């Protein structure tokens, strides 16, 4: 094909313009805004140096709490989502009847948007758990979402319910990629049950774990919709996660500059964790 | 030996169906409650409705301005998805066929921005867009193009890499220019991956909340997730209407899933095994 530069840029242009205006320039501007006292309303933005970052690191308790909450939540969510996703995947790849039906059911929660999910579970926790707890006199079912502990568990249940079906799909694809003869050879070598899982299947699953971990980490860390609709960050900000904290700093307190600095820290943390995770799990991938 | 295997299979099946029941139970309870009066929900939330009444639905339908919100969601999702597919397939094609340093750098850039959280761009983005007078539905579509194209380009890129170039070269020899080659030769070959890319984009754009809440949160412009959120704010304790409205919002997505199941699964697993 005749390779004209003009042709290249003609075909790149629409995507590049949209991408530059919507993602690239705002990212660069955002880093710049994080060094100002912008309040979002007035035109004036004064350069304040690293003042916002100092405020966040030394005196902003809400950010620190949100950070700790988000971190703990992400650790728990990543474990539960991937563990249950993997268990579901092994379950629906067995030779039993109705596997397609089961796959459909397990995956379905994933399609429902975060806002709807949060509200749906709010109803379950606040109305249904309460009613059952009252009737059967089970104390721990009552008063859900009224303190940090049940808010945390509630969010964990919602996210596990939503994402484990997604991870299941990823793990199914990889399980079906494992060549039949490898499994047969393993059987001849007497690798069955747990040994087969530990030494044959799990190592061959590593590429899927790379993707599964990557997606669940970034989903858990960036969680916003479910947080907003399930607990709204309450009671008294005790279940506020980082994304919601940034949102409230900007639109609730009109401190856009400070919110932007938080967002930059947020971005650095998300990138660092994802890159570390990718480099660790990539190294462990093996060929069948 | 054989009976042992049958028992094993039966027990696995039982576990599977118990888990499935656990997974659908929240939706089940929601459907059940949506047919009940508020009083009945408070008396016994798990009891079956006394009679089959669609009253909650008609009321929620009217009060959340469902038709308008649905049409907004539908139009924004369809137009954005179509435009994303067009611009990303164009971009991915030249990124594959021109093996220059520029194309390599651009591709890496599209891959890297996947990691940037939305919170990091949202404030400057709103600032820029309001200066460009794009805080409206067409502006939202444009923003979706910007956010959706990176992922879609990567998916198209992976697919086009495996298409032999000979067909395109033959077309060029026959006198086709680049635009004709793209429309007549390349696009038809992309059919399978287009469906996958479409489904992925429809799923996130349809459910997206934060971006439209910043851009088009005005009466008459809102999408379904925005209307649901507002509706809940107004009727927090009216669970009869609330459950019906949740059901009304879930139905389109479930119908979509049932009709495109194949492509959804493909879209999710596109990156696995490579």
UniProtKB/TrEMBL annotation, chain A:
It is a multi-pass membrane protein. This is ABC transmembrane type-1 domain-containing protein. Residues 67-277 form the ABC transmembrane type-1 domain. The chain crosses the membrane at residues 67-93, 105-132, 152-173, 199-221, 263-280. GO terms for biological process: transmembrane transport. Belongs to the binding-protein-dependent transport system permease family. InterPro entries: ABC_transporter_permease, MetI-like, MetI-like_sf. It is found in: Cell membrane. The keyword Transport applies. It comes from Oribacterium asaccharolyticum ACB7.
Automatic annotation (TrEMBL), chain B:
One of its GO terms (biological process) is transmembrane transport. The keyword Cell inner membrane does not apply. It is a multi-pass membrane protein. Residues 70-259 form the ABC transmembrane type-1 domain. SUPFAM superfamilies: MetI-like. Its main location: membrane. Signal peptide: none annotated. GO terms for cellular component: plasma membrane. It is found in: Cell membrane. Keywords: Cell membrane, Membrane, Transmembrane, Transmembrane helix, Transport. Belongs to the binding-protein-dependent transport system permease family. This is ABC transmembrane type-1 domain-containing protein.
């Amino acid at each position: 094909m005749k390779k004209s530069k003009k042709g290249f840029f003609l075909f790149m242009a629409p995507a590049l313009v949209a991408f530059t205006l919507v993602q690239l320039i705002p990212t660069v501007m955002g880093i710049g805004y994080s060094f100002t006292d912008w309040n979002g309303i007035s035109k004036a933005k004064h350069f304040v140096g690293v003042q916002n970052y100092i405020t966040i690191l030394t005196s902003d308790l809400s950010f620190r709490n949100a950070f700790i909450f988000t971190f703990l939540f992400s650790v728990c969510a990543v474990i539960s989502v991937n563990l249950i996703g993997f268990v579901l995947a092994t379950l629906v790849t067995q030779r039993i009847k109705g596997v397609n039906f089961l796959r459909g059911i397990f995956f379905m929660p994933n399609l429902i948007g975060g806002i709807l999910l949060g509200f749906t579970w709010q109803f379950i926790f606040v109305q249904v758990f309460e009613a059952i707890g009252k009737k059967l006199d089970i104390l721990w079912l009552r008063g859900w979402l009224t303190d940090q502990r049940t808010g945390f568990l509630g969010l964990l249940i919602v996210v596990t319910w939503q994402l484990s079906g997604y991870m299941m799909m990823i793990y199914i694809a990889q399980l079906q990629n494992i060549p039949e003869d490898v499994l047969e050879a393993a059987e001849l070598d007497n690798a069955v049950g747990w040994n087969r899982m530990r030494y044959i299947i799990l190592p061959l699953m590593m590429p899927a774990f790379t993707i599964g971990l990557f997606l669940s980490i970034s989903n858990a860390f960036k969680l916003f919709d479910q947080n907003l609709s399930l607990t709204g960050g309450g009671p008294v900000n005790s279940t506020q996660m980082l994304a919601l904290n940034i949102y409230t700093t900007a639109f609730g307190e009109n401190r856009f500059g400070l919110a932007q600095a938080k967002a930059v820290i947020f971005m650095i943390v998300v990138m660092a964790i994802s890159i570390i995770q990718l480099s660790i799990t990539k190294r462990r991938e093996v060929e069948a | 030996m054989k009976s042992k295997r049958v028992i094993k299979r039966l027990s696995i099946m039982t576990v599977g169906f118990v888990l499935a029941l656990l997974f659908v139970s929240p939706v089940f309870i929601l459907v059940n409650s949506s047919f009940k009066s508020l009083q009945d929900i408070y008396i016994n939330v798990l009891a079956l409705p006394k009679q089959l009444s669609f009253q909650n639905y008609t009321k929620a339908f009217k009060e959340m301005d469902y038709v308008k919100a649905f049409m907004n969601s539908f139009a924004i999702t369809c137009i954005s998805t179509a435009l994303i597919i067009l611009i990303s397939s164009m971009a991915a094609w030249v990124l594959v066929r021109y093996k220059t340093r520029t194309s390599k750098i651009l591709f890496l850039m599209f891959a890297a921005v996947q990691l940037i959280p939305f919170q990091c761009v949202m404030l400057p983005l709103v600032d820029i867009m309001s200066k460009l007078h794009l805080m409206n539905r067409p502006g939202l579509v444009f923003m979706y193009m910007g956010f959706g194209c990176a992922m879609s380009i990567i998916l198209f890129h992976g697919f086009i890499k495996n298409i032999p170039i000979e067909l395109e070269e033959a077309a060029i020899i026959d006198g086709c220019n680049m635009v004709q080659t793209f429309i007549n030769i390349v696009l038809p070959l992309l059919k399978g991956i287009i469906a996958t890319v479409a489904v992925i984009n429809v799923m996130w754009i349809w459910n997206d909340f934060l971006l439209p809440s910043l851009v088009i949160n005005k009466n008459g412009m809102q999408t379904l997730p925005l209307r649901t959120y507002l509706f809940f704010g107004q009727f927090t304790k009216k669970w009869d209407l609330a459950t019906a409205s949740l059901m009304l919002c879930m139905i389109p997505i479930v119908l979509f899933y049932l009709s495109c199941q194949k492509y959804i699964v493909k879209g999710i697993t596109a990156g696995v095994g490579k």
